[in-house]
Amino acid sequence: MRQFNQNCQEFCVHKTIHERADPWYLEDMNTCEKLSVQSASLLQSLSLVNFRNYSQRSFAFSSPLVALYGDNGIGKTNILEAISLFSQGRGLRSSKLSEMRQVGQEQPWVAAAIFGMNGIAIPFGTALDFGPSGSERRLIKINHIPVKSQAILSEWLNVVWVIPSMARLFQEGGSLRRKFVDRMVMALNPSHSERLNRYEHYLRERSQLLRQGMMDPQWLSSIEQKLSEDGVAITIARANLVRQLTASQSEDTTSPFPRYFAQMVGEVDDWCRDGVAVDVEDKIRGALAQSRVQDAQSGGASIGPHRSDLAVTHLAKHMPGEMCSTGEQKMLLHAMTLAFIRLLDSYRDRLTLLLLDDVVAHLDADHRAYLFKEVADILDKGANLQIFMTGTGIHEFNQISGIQAIEV
Question: What domains can be seen in the chain, in order of their start residue?
Answer without folding.
Answer: 2-170+324-407 (3.40.50.300), 174-321 (1.20.1050.90)
